[in-house]
Amino acid sequence: MIPPGYIFVALLGFLSCKEKEIKHHLKNQRICKTHACKEAAKQIISYMDTTVKPCDDFYRFACGRFVDTAEIHSDKVDNSTVTQVDLMVEEQLKSVISEPPRPNEIAPFRSLKRLFSLCMDEEKIDARGVGPALTKLKAAGGWPVLGNWGNKKWNFLDTYIRLRNSMMGHTSLFQIDVEVDIKNNSRRIIMVDQPSLGLAQELLVKGPNDTMVKAYFNFMVDIAVLFGANKKTALKELRSSLHFEIELAKVMTVKEERRDYTRMYNFFILPKLTAELGWDWDKLLRGIMPKPISIRRDEVIIVVEVQYMRKLKQLLRSNSIRQPCTETGILCAE
């Protein structure tokens, strides 16, 4: 039997040799010493709480000072290092697009700067008021909250097409986009997905008595009144609309389950889409696509959340057409 002392000495010798190897390896490593690398390292160190031993609480060791000092901005629901990078990029982007267009810039950059300039011209926007939006709402079939809705003539597809073409409120029940095909990146494909609601799904499902949902409802009413609605009418109509939006949120797939791209790649051709999910998808797609683009009968469409679309169909059957119309209108107004 080998004496324990020999094993200990041998182990020390082994570690000593390894230490030399590690030092030699580090010595020959190319370490980034640029200003950007130094700033990144400085920031990482500033987040650490070195008073805590990493083996006791590694998260606290790595992020302790960030947790203690970071603040959540009034217009945000969280804060993280990713959020801070996003804010920094936003500021940099704002700085770039705030500059006047240069003669040698390509057309998309000039258009972007012009559009940003128009969006930031608050004086002109205030002078125009809600008039342009009201005109589009009326052209789309009206809005029950304003009392200018002709329910006998109202049709969701026609309304969706009009609002989509005017770039307003077109994601109220579902959204349609043209994206790069994840299984064949040499082509683009039409994708149908669940909507982007006025408030985060995880908040809406808490119900109308939740603090955030109450604040959202008050915001909806304020918007409607701004558009000229009677407050009493707005309260009644939008309470019903909020209930419908909560029901939408409940049948949507939660974001934690939207990571399996294989599950979300559901192949449909146009006739099958209409047969299984309802609505005249041929009319809808032809109505929203630019004129040079033709929609074939065998057009391939990827439906991201099939179960949501089926539940939506059932939900619309169990509600009067007034609710989706009001919901479409408030998202358009927002």
Automatic annotation (TrEMBL):
Cellular localisation: Cell membrane
A GO term, aspect molecular function: metalloendopeptidase activity
A Pfam family hit: Peptidase_M13_N
Listed SUPFAM superfamilies: Metalloproteases ('zincins'), catalytic domain
Annotated membrane topology: Single-pass type II membrane protein
Principal localisation: membrane
Record domain Peptidase M13 N-terminal: where: 54-320
GO cellular component, one term: plasma membrane
Residue ranges that the Swiss-Prot or TrEMBL entry lists as coiled coil: none
One of the GO BP terms on file: protein processing
Classification via PANTHER family: NEPRILYSIN-21, ZINC METALLOPROTEASE FAMILY M13 NEPRILYSIN-RELATED
Family the entry assigns: Belongs to the peptidase M13 family.
Name the UniProt record assigns to this protein: Peptidase M13 N-terminal domain-containing protein
Organism: Graphocephala atropunctata
Phylogenetic lineage: Eukaryota, Metazoa, Ecdysozoa, Arthropoda, Hexapoda
